[in-house]
Amino acid sequence: MTLWEVNLLPATGETDREARALERAAAELHDAYAAGEAPILAASARGFLIGAPSADDATIDRIVSELLADPVVERPLAGRMGDIDLAAPPAELVQRVGGSPIGLLHVLPKPGVMDPVAGSAEGAIADLGVAEPHVRSLRKYWVSGVTQDRLEELAMRLLANDAIEQVVVGPLAITSLDAGEDHAFELKHVDIAGLDDEGLMRLSREGQLYLQLAEMQTIQRYFADQGRAPTDIELETLAQTWSEHCSHKTLAGRIAYRDERGERRFENMLKETIFAATNKLREGWGADDWCVSVFKDNAGIVRFDETDNVCFKVETHNHPSALEPYGGANTGMGGVIRDTLGTGLGAKPICSTDVFCFAPPDTPDSELPPGVLPPRRVIEGVVAGVRDYGNRMGIPTVNGAVCFDQRYLGNPLVYCGNAGLIPHDKSFKEPQPNDLIVAIGGRTGRDGIHGATFSSAELTSESESLSGGAVQIGNAIEEKKVTDVLLQARDRGLFTAVTDCGAGGFSSAVGEMGEEIGAEVWLEKAPLKYRGLSYTEIWISEAQERMVFSVPDDKWEEMHALCEAEGVEASVLGRFTPTGDLKLTFHGETVGELPMALLHDGRPPVVREASYTPPATEPFSPPAKDDYTEDLLKILGSLNVASKEWVIRQYDHEVQGGSVIKPLVGVQNDGPGDAAVVRPKLSSRRGLVISCGINPRYGEFDTYRMAASAIDEAIRNAVAVGADPTRLALLDNFCWGDCERSETLGSLVRAALACHDLSLAFEAPFVSGKDSLNNEFSYLGAGGEKQTIAIPPTLLISAMGQVDDVAKCVTMDLKRAGNRLYAVGLTRDEMGGSHLALVQELAGGEAPAVDTDLAKTVFAGVHAAIDQGLVASCHDVSEGGLSAALAEMAFAGGLGVDADLSTAPSEGLTTAAVGLLFSESNSRFVCEVASENAEAFEAALGAAPHAAIGEVTATDHVAITADGAAVRADLAALKEAWQAPLRW
Amino acid sequence: MASPRVLVLRSPGANCDEETAEAFRLAGGVAQPVHVNRLLESPDLLADYQVLCVPGGFSYGDDIAAGRVLGGQLRRRLADACQRFRDDGKLVLGICNGYQVLMSAGLLDLDSEGAEGSGERSATLAWSDRGRYDARWVTLHATPGECVFLRGIDTIEMPVAHAEGRFAIRDSAALDRLRNAGQLVLRYAEGDNPNGSADDVAGVCDRSGRVLGLMPHPERFIDATQHPCWTRSGLSGEGAGLAIFRNAVSFFD
After folding, report:
1. Which residues does the record give as substrate binding sites (chain A) (predicted)?
2. What CATH class has B5-250?
């Protein structure tokens, strides 16, 4: 079949943005790649490869003029594959380089990789009346100034990612767009009976099963008892179901924990800490219990109003994002949205959150271990991935955080969260025996094979080549269509249960849904993206945008018609047969048969040791100064604190129309809001508050305090905008290193104990959570020795609060000159892990603890004051302490501050000035109050410690004194320090 | 007269349909989301409505270019229904992606007269100068002229959220022609042009004034608490963007 290539070049006068970006990036690498002194110059085009059985040149011309090209800003060029005009560099570039040789590069998605642009183009070309079009998208570059033999390397470094894309140097010579070949069926058995322990572990590793010895032995025994060898699909099913990712076997396993207080044994650590706290709270509330469904569905559900509940889930997608930042983060967001869709009988996604942990963007290339992408490329890719999924789905991304630490170099963390709205009577699901198993949405391809097991392994410098298939690219529009169908089908009562196809694909989804019943799956019925998939690949593929339903026979016709009406593919894959077994067939032949009981209860318990030894304490001894202005400016400009406006503005935070408190607030809409508030029902004034807390720096001192601080921070952020502290639901997301090391696991158990204790004390239930272990990156050092970078223990706490009338919410920007400023809460000598310590490069001190009785009093008091309309602005005090909080409030509001912290409530400060200005003690706020409200405000605070510390001034100056020391700076200088570092 | 019926056009990837329908309802219209597949099956369906609104989102993923695929469907497969709709004196509103769709469908009378089919497009919505998606609030000035939707509006604040919204024009003659025809009805205030649009153009109408396309989102400002500074300025009640929907509804009084 003839293939055509269409190039779309920027029209004369239009900026060639892709080429300018390439030139900027190449300039930094000039020494390594340039052919001479001349700068590296480029031109670009986007393009399509098109083939269709009936097409001729005139057809292609019509496709170009009616569909592909914009005649105002683009210059189209079309020709048959190999046409020399297509390879010729644009005249403008020829003129700019003045006779130097120009190389040609193409970047294309690898065959079989999701190419949504090509998919849409195929649909639109068919719409033009051209039958059976095949399309592939491409990017094309002409580059001068680079040594010819280094062109490909430059392209791999700056333009393409080997996990998903291929680079072609010189003219294209592609003859077919067909991705697959026919699959020759052959039932495969795996010989496991004769293997010794070493052989079992080799099979586990080389088969990418990533199971432990005891698990492999259990499998070996089961099949010995059956008197047969397992098939490949049976082993894969067991490996997926028993993976850390799907079963959380470490934290839900037996742990012997030892710390300074003695020993404690857990049969199921999570159940006995975090779940136990929630259960105890619910028992205590009795009839007033506002939790609906916790720790069992895809997301935790709590009550919202008389008719609806809300659910919330946060997931991580760390390993895929390390290899392919865009695709990893893209499908991370897509995946957590499917968690919402798969909660109960389907919740409507209403807002998203994103929290990232990266290595500093200025890490020099020379310090990158082999196989590690430059941090800036990771950051840009991750942000773009989240952006393109959330924005396209029409779900506002309203809250987040970004943390930086060198140890996230090979293993960045990407947390994506999503909240949903679900009617009371749709909050539970139960598949019924003999229901049909129905899959809807995207087709199944070879993308994402072994994601569940791969994400449970440690990353290495070779992960990319080993697990490239585990990386996926999302297609948000497919998921939007699935959402539209799902919510209509839910309201019409067309199914009895639904779940998402996430890690483990159909294997996981069908295995979970059929756990209590049994299931028979006809694998050949799954629609495929291309030919050639084996039955096992179909079963474990993690291709995106698929949901699995249990549909009663008499509803299938209506379900099918609904899907067809919205252009969503739906297929019957099998039946939930009441046999207690999982039976897999391919064209009538049984390829696997396992008891559900073996899958879900057959895994041998994981038993681990965990230990915690408190680190030796040393004092924090900062040099005495009387002017701390420079320190404050450095803190505001530190990466963790600095403005994330570059990220936030790329996200649509207002779609769905419910935005109340935006992520950026203030007179110029650029101050750091504490928490987001959305109104999920446009007919109601009730608001949902989303906030988070994270501070890995405190974990260096004590992971108990780190966890307690993160919980306190998430709650106080929510309270600061007006959330009711008695209606806060929490989520935990543990990202840790290798928990086979007892001290690593010990630090995690300690954090979980804090979650238990604080949840009980604050009466804030954990409703869902997730862990991601083995976040380590290993590589061979220069001398051939194994080097490992483990991430710092990182706990993200997300909070979901509620407010009865959004009109009561407040923001953190100062409002009016003459208003009084109050410090609320108690400042203690807690400088360990503080940002003053960071910018002064000092160690020592104690990480902030949480006094829960005091904290509850403060939260209740501040909430009462906000609820009564007495607070003009309110800001939580965190990194950088009171001085940073005041500075942020000032530049966000465009008003000055005159404050003396000496009267602020404090206790046990060794250096009063340092503590008052910079201590990061928990449970504190700064509030702005009109003088006529001062008396009522103080009354509303009740027993919460507080003091008037100054006033808002009609100046552009911030002046804060504390025990003889001071900070003095103009608003412009403070804001510039805060905005400059990440103003990309 | 009975409330006008508003067809809010759903499509794969449209995602502002619900809040846009809510805005029309608050303004007194009877708004119904209808999937484009229903219109393609029976184009006569359009005749049951007085207002056609193409809402924001990413129709068909904006995969080839923003609004291109849905715009092509309106231009090729719904041309007659759309023409009758306009000839009957009815209203068409395209917001953000909907504006891109109207532009792509050729429903805004931007090409020089007689150029129909000659391929000589005068204007387009191109990639922003920023080179990426960007969400922010902007101040706009309206010069309504004949434009029904902007009657009585002088200065208004609304959010923009897009990557491809730069109003690009073929040449200065085309710009002069559209300006003189009174079609450049909505402009970003000085210093508030978020994407490098020619002549600060944020929205354009057709020659009749009954078809409007605009990049900013009026449906995101129908309640005071949607404004980014509502906690500073003491705003309460409805948002200024509702005026655009009220104008559409009251046109049929």
Report:
1. 338, 472, 772
2. alpha beta
A900 annotated binding-site participant: no
Query: Which residue, chain included where needed, has tokens 């906000």?
Result: A866
What does the block give as tokens for A560? 């099918």
pLDDT (0 to 100) of residue A527: 95
Domain boundaries, chain B: 5-250
Which residues from A are below 8 Å from B220, CB to CB? 654-655, 657, 659
**Was A352 annotated as part of a binding site?**
no
Q: Please judge whether B121 and A72 are an interchain contact, meaning their C-beta atoms are less than 8 angstroms apart.
A: yes
Instruction: Tell me the C-alpha distance between A696 and A703, whole Å.
Output: 9
CA atoms lying within 13 Å on the CB side of residue A225: 8
- Looking at the complex, does the CB of residue A526 fall below 8 Å from at least one CB of chain B? no
Cα gap A702→A695, rounded to integer Å: 12
CB within 8 Å: A669 and B217: no
Please report the DSSP string for B119-174 in residue order. Answer: T---EEEE--TT-S-EEEEEEEEE--TT-STTTT-SEEEEEEEESS-EEEES-HHH
Cβ contact A760:A797 at 8 Å: no
Question: Cα(B214)–Cα(B82) distance, rounded to whole angstroms?
Answer: 19
pLDDT digit string, tens, across residues B52-88? 999 999 999 999 999 999 999 999 999 999 999 999 9
Mean pLDDT of A952-981: 97
Closest CB from A72, A127, A393 relative to B15? A393
A500 is in an annotated binding site: yes
Which residues are paired to A965 by β-bridges? A962
CA distance A316 to A503: 12
**How far apart, in whole angstroms, are the C-alpha atoms of residue A887 and residue A734?**
32
* Nearest Cα residue to A695 out of A559, A876, A949: A876
Instruction: Tell me: pLDDT of A118 over 50.
Output: yes
d(CA B37, CA B54): 14
Task: Give the whole-angstrom CA distance, residue A477 versus residue B58.
Answer: 8
B123: distance to nearest CA of chain A, Å?
6
Q: Write down the H helix ranges in A286-440.
A: 318-323, 325-341, 375-393
The residue among A70, A379, A475, A866 with the most chain B CBs within 10 A of its CB, best to mutate, is: A70
Scanning every residue of chain B, which has its alpha carbon at the shortest distance from the alpha carbon of A47?
B64
Q: Do A476 and B61 touch (CB under 8 A)?
A: yes
Query: Distance from CA of residue A520 to its chain's centroid?
Result: 34
Residue A259 has pLDDT above 80, yes or no: yes
- Beta strand ranges found along A446-562 (DSSP E): 459-460, 497-500, 519-522, 546-551
pTM more than 0.80: yes
CB contact under 8 A, B135 and A567: no
Q: Annotated binding residue at A338?
A: yes
Rounded Cα distance, A510 and A574, in Å:
10
Known catalytic membership, residue B82: no
**Mean pLDDT of all residues in chain A?**
93
The shortest CB-CB distance from B133 to any of A650, A654, A661 is to: A650
Cβ neighbours of B229 in A, within 8 Å: 667, 669
The three-class DSSP label of residue B54 is strand
The residue of chain B with its CA nearest to that of A681 is: B19
DSSP A68: I
Tokens encoding B135: 């969400």
Nearest CA in chain A to B61: A477
Q: Please name the amino acid found at residue A448.
A: G
For the A4-169 domain, the top CATH level (class) is alpha beta
The CA-atom distances, in angstroms, between A576 and each of A246, A381, A512, A522, A572 are 21, 41, 11, 12, 11
Compute CA distances B170 → A14, A471, B64, B174, whole Å: 11, 42, 20, 7
CB A699, CB A407: distance < 8 Å? no
